[in-house]
């Protein structure tokens, strides 16, 4: 019994640094997502652009007239410009249930979101971020989202 407990204790001690590194990496990746949304709320186009890889792709999926509508943009220029253009109400995207997966220099974040114009709920869905780590910095190479106006909760 003592031997089993000692072995378990040794195994747990060896895994602690691995778990800690994984948590640190997850926090680094989520910080990039948070920076995007902080930039959107502030209307700060430079902050938003800083999280995007130069070759980012934006994908938005919704329903129109009962059919799936897919919009793909090969550049974030229009989105970044829209963020920086003055608007009456803050763009406030709120996430929950974040799931992070990392393999070396590639990370994926899947999260539920609600999007608010000021204090009013506009729409909801999921965001999926694909990130790459180059020269020690995580940047988004793809942002995909779904959009709906029903089933958003509160």
What key attributes describe this structure?
about 150 residues, alpha+beta, Nuclear Transport Factor 2, Chain: A, 6-stranded mixed beta sheet, globular
Structure description:
The protein is of the alpha+beta class. The chain has a single domain, classed as Roll (Nuclear Transport Factor 2, Chain: A). The chain is built from three helices and six strands. Strands 2-1-6-5-4-3 form a six-stranded mixed sheet. β1 and β2 (67-73) form a beta hairpin. The radius of gyration is 19 Å and the shape is globular. The chain starts with a helix and ends in an 8-residue tail after the last strand. 18% of the residues are buried.
The secondary structure category is alpha+beta
CATH architecture descriptor = Roll
Query: How are the strands ordered across the major sheet?
Result: 2-1-6-5-4-3
Number of helices: 3
Summarize the helix and strand pattern as letters. HHEEHEEEE
End-to-end separation in angstroms reads 51 Å
What's the number of domains?
1
List the helices and strands and how they pair.
Blueprint: H1 2-42, H2 45-50, E1 52-64, E2 67-73, H3 77-84, E3 91-103, E4 106-117, E5 120-134, E6 137-146
Summarize the structure.
By secondary structure, the chain is α+β, with helices and mostly antiparallel strands. It is built from three helices and six strands; from the N terminus they run H-H-E-E-H-E-E-E-E.
């Amino acid at each position: 019994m003592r031997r089993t407990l000692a072995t378990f204790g040794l195994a747990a001690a060896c895994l602690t640094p691995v778990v800690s590194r994984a948590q640190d990496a997850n926090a680094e990746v989520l910080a990039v997502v948070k920076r995007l949304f902080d930039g959107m709320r502030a209307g700060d186009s430079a902050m938003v652009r800083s999280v995007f890889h130069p070759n980012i792709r934006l994908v938005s999926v919704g329903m129109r007239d009962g059919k799936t509508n897919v919009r793909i943009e090969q550049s974030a220029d229009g989105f970044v410009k829209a963020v920086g253009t003055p608007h009456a109400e803050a763009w406030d995207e709120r996430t929950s249930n974040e799931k992070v997966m990392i393999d070396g220099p590639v990370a994926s974040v899947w999260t539920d979101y609600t999007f608010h114009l000021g204090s009013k709920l506009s729409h909801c869905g999921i965001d999926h971020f694909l990130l790459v780590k180059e020269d020690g910095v995580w940047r988004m190479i793809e942002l995909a989202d779904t959009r709906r106006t029903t089933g958003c909760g509160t």
